[in-house]
Amino acid sequence: MAIANKNIIFVAGLGGIGFDTSREIVKSGPKNLVILDRIENPAAIAELKALNPKVTVTFYPYDVTVSVAETTKLLKTIFDKLKTVDLLINGAGILDDYQIERTIAVNFTGTVNTTTAIMSFWDKRKGGPGGVIANICSVTGFNAIYQVPVYSASKAAVYSFTNSLARLAPITGVTAYSINPGITKTTLVHKFNSWQDVEPRVAELLLEHPTQTTLQCAQNFVKAIEANQNGAIWKLDLGTLEAIEWTKHWDSHI
Ligand SMILES: NC(=O)c1ccc[n+]([C@@H]2O[C@H](COP(=O)([O-])OP(=O)(O)OC[C@H]3O[C@@H](n4cnc5c(N)ncnc54)[C@H](O)[C@@H]3O)[C@@H](O)[C@H]2O)c1
Ligand SMILES: CCCCCCO
């Protein structure tokens, strides 16, 4: 998908990975970038607007843990204004294995509910135009950081959900792919709680190994958007972009 002249909704577009990705998206000249995020940062929005005045950047406060009905109401406001939306990026995430319920609510249920809400505007069975969904999962969805099993499982869940969305595309008209960053230097990863304190130094130990910058991640994120491959499993690690081949071990045959 060429980003130029498209309408994009970016949930969590102001976070560490999110903001650098928003910058790279704005440089590519979409018609509209609508950022939904829990954190309000007017200076960041102003910076995006200044980066490319041809792009209309708007912000709405949004918490992914609200109901589908409330999300649908917000999306109606956006669709009434934009008329069409080409891409939804779901990027909200927390990393704290002390917060079990909230981790699942934000990282998994939040993505599922936001996706469910946009289907009423996109589903071709309801006369919708279809659309594209990019879900930010994580390499930990493939191979867990087992000291944060709740976080890793939440990422495996949203990764699995994204794969199913892609398989359902012939029915719904909505395609999907996953964005799976490796360890990327943001505030999320500086320090976080392991589950049951199994490893109090988990962040310190992980950060002893090579990582990538948010800019490297963002530049590869845009390449994945442009590739626009339904069902793609994109690994964005150590400054590289790689489409992962997933090994099938079972098939439902339906
Ligand atoms: N940094 C990494 O190493 C890494 C690796 C793989 C995946 N990820 C994922 O990338 C995404 C961004 O992470 P980051 O490292 O930039 O961290 P970050 O903490 O900078 O960003 C997290 C983003 O999620 C938003 N968010 C959190 N709770 C929310 C809620 N309830 N409603 C709406 N938005 C909410 C935050 O406002 C922020 O924009 C997360 O989903 C994270 O799991 C990060
Ligand atoms: C340093 C640990 C980073 C964990 C986030 C991977 O999704």
UniProtKB/TrEMBL annotation:
Gene Ontology annotations for the cellular component aspect, listed alphabetically: cytoplasm
The keyword tRNA-binding is annotated on this UniProt entry: no
GO MF annotation terms: alcohol dehydrogenase (NAD+) activity; identical protein binding
Catalytic activity reported: a secondary alcohol + NAD(+) = a ketone + NADH + H(+); a primary alcohol + NAD(+) = an aldehyde + NADH + H(+)
Keyword rRNA-binding: no
Pfam families in the cross-refs: adh_short
Listed GO biological process terms: alcohol metabolic process
EC number: 1.1.1.1
Keywords, in A-Z order: NAD, Oxidoreductase
Listed PANTHER family: 15-HYDROXYPROSTAGLANDIN DEHYDROGENASE [NAD(+)] (PTHR44229), ALCOHOL DEHYDROGENASE-RELATED (PTHR44229:SF8)
Quaternary structure (record): Homodimer.
Family: Belongs to the short-chain dehydrogenases/reductases (SDR) family.
Name of the protein described by the UniProt record: Alcohol dehydrogenase
Protein's organism: Drosophila arizonae (Fruit fly)
Gene: Adh2
